[in-house]
Amino acid sequence: MQKNEPKVAFWMLLPAILLISVIAFFPLFKTFYDSFFSFSLNPRFPREFVGFGNYIKLFNDSRFWASLKTTLIFTVVSVALETVLGLMIALVVHQEFKFRGAVRAAMLIPWAIPTAISSQMWRWMFNDQFGIMSRLYEYLHIIEPGTPILGRPGLALWAIIQVDVWKTTPFMALLILAGLQLIPEQLYEAAKIDGANMIQRFFKITLPQLIPTIAIALIFRTLDALRVFDVVYVMTRGSVGTETLSVYNRVLLMDRAFTSASFGYGSALSVIIFVLISIFAIVYIKSLKLKFD
Amino acid sequence: MKRFLVLVSLLLVFAVGLSITTITMTSGGVGKELEVLYAQLKEFMKENPDIVVTVIPMPDSSTERHDLYVTYLAAGESDPDVLMLDVIWPPEFAPFLEDLTKDYEYFELDKFLPGTVKSVTVDGRIVAIPWFTDAGLLYYRKDLLEKYGYDHPPQTWDELVEMAQKISKAEGIEGFVWQGARYEGLVCDFMEYVWSFGSDVLDDNGNVIINNPKAVAALQFMIDLIYKYKISPEGVTTYMEEDARRIFQAGNAVFMRNWPYAWSLANADDSPIKGKVGVVPLPKGPGPDGKHAATLGGWNLGINIFSSKKEKEAAKKLIKFLTSHNQQLYKAINAGQNPTRKEVYNEPKLKEVNPFMVELFDVFINALPRPRTANYAEVSDAIQRYVHAALTKQMTPEEALAKLEKELKLLLGQ
């Protein structure tokens, strides 16, 4: 029986391994492979091996650097805000109060709406003529009347970040809430007996106990943010300095699919996005001392 | 005997089954477009009982349709059989479209508007059949112009500025709305200014000539509409067709640049400006080279090269039917989309329902095509980025066009 166990485990894991190979690893390796070629989906262009040519071209492409910068700003600011706000909301809904269940459910609505739809909704709310958000900001004297928020370099990216924070904070809050519920009540009782006040209890018990949960949530969100596409594409199509790496990649892989040999170039950009995401993931895992066992 | 009968009936069923050809076509769903198409297909299938047509509705945005076609064609899919193609796509999709050159007579292309036939000709080959055509137009509020003592719509851009400033200030509404967001529509609007100022992006030989004083003046004029004359809201840099139309149709603008489709919507029963709208050619630019200019739009029907021979034959029949005289008239009256056949414009019924189509016939036959290159998508992307950067004051017009020239030369290998 004992002897057989690894064998049984292998056969039970096999379908999952095969499935993941087909739907995840194969496209990944194909993209890596393609990034060393110059080719197009249009057979008019010959497929040629160019080595690191695509990468060299990419590092000399100012549009790549601009979209990288935008992506990083978007990621750092939106994930930081989502984490802080998510933590605060989680702490509130962790308390006992009337209609807590209803509040917890209602909180998730922004997360439940498909991004393409909510982005379109926000695009209208930021419209200079009839947008309710434009009115609100005018009323608060944050902007001049008639300012097209999504047409102003500088403002547009912040509007997009705002939409992302609105949409994803509930997800953060939900994950952190789950973490909060795992902290044993005895820890707090012991701390109270030792005379620790609320602030001390938060920093000495709640936060350290939450670190693994927050780390997982951070990884999820950061990886999502680094490849952000829909919210940007729907709201500004990448104009006025809001072009992210994925939005630029759409131009390479779709607009140019038949018209130039840029499919390998787009694959190289995909690989860069993959590498970038990996770096972030490794940094998180190392710095937060996560253990995956 | 019994066995023989079974065999015969089986063969019969088989033969009938074989003789029915099912084809798929794509179509947009703007306004009443889809409803009209379904009615047309019903008639077609009644006339051709051996053909069944199914429709794949497409997203409204031309860019999204483009992305879908890239996916279908790159995968070598034999569906859809009939593709609805934007006027700017034939050079790009030509390798994936059935060559229809020898069917010139069959489709009676000599009876079509020459500009539309030119738009479907790639390296001397006909790759699609023009279905309906479009051109940029100036919509204006007849009632407001009259109220402020103007007895004719603007002939020149200067006149438009003067009228728009006076009326918009007095009425507290916007002067002129158009399409300034960074997307394909911006290229259409930009080209109209450039042409009306007597310039172009490429010359007749395909050389890049965009960096010249007239084009700079045209771009400067677009910027001035927003920041100097203040007749266009700063928000035009985020508007597409429907954003502009909503403002105009709500009665909040004096002038609008848009396509013909806006006419029937602006005059619908629930429109606040019903009966108060006029349509004229876009104004002329300054100087001796100034002229009226409109960008050619419109859609064509092409056949997927991966379809079977039988499907291709059925597809040809369908395209011939949809682009026939009667069907174009039906579409023009019911969906407000301009015919591509010359003679349809002589129909009294068309003049009655959509008088502007007949009155502005000259605009439609003189509409100019956007730069014709096989890598148009990249050319368009470059124009969009630099023109939008100038409109949002990230660059001066001189700087924007100098950079645009450099990038276009690189793209076109000059």
Give a verbal description of the structure.
The complex is a heterodimer of chains A (about 290) and B (about 425). With about 290 residues, chain A is an all-alpha fold. Chain A has a single domain (about 50-285), classed as MetI-like (MetI-like fold, Orthogonal Bundle). Chain A is built from 13 helices and two strands; from the N terminus they run αββαααααααααααα. Chain A has helices spanning about 5-35, 55-60, 60-95, 100-105, 110, 115-125, 130-140, 155-180, 185-195, 200-225, 230-235, 245-255, 265-285; strands at about 35-40, 50. Chain A has a two-stranded antiparallel sheet. The model of chain A has no long low-confidence stretch (mean pLDDT about 90). Chain B has about 425 residues and is α+β, with helices and mostly antiparallel strands. Chain B folds into two domains: about 20-135 and about 295-365, 3-Layer(aba) Sandwich (D-Maltodextrin-Binding Protein, domain 2); about 135-295 and about 375-410, Periplasmic binding protein-like II (D-Maltodextrin-Binding Protein, domain 2), CATH 3.40.190.10. Chain B has helices at about 1-20, 35-45, 60-75, 90-95, 115-120, 140-145, 155-170, 185-195, 215-225, 240-250, 260-265, 310-320, 325-335, 350-355, 355-360, 360-365, 375-390, 395-410; strands at about 20-25, 50-55, 80-85, 120, 125, 130-135, 135-140, 175, 255-260, 275-280, 295-305. Chain B has a four-stranded mixed beta sheet with strand order 8-9-7-10. A three-stranded antiparallel beta sheet of chain B has the order 3-11-6. In chain B, strands 1-2 form a two-stranded parallel ribbon. In chain B, strand 4 and strand 5 form a beta hairpin. Chain B is globular, with a radius of gyration of 23 Å. Chain B starts with a helix and ends with a helix. The relative contact order of chain B is 0.17. The interface of A and B includes residues 41, 128 and 255 of A.
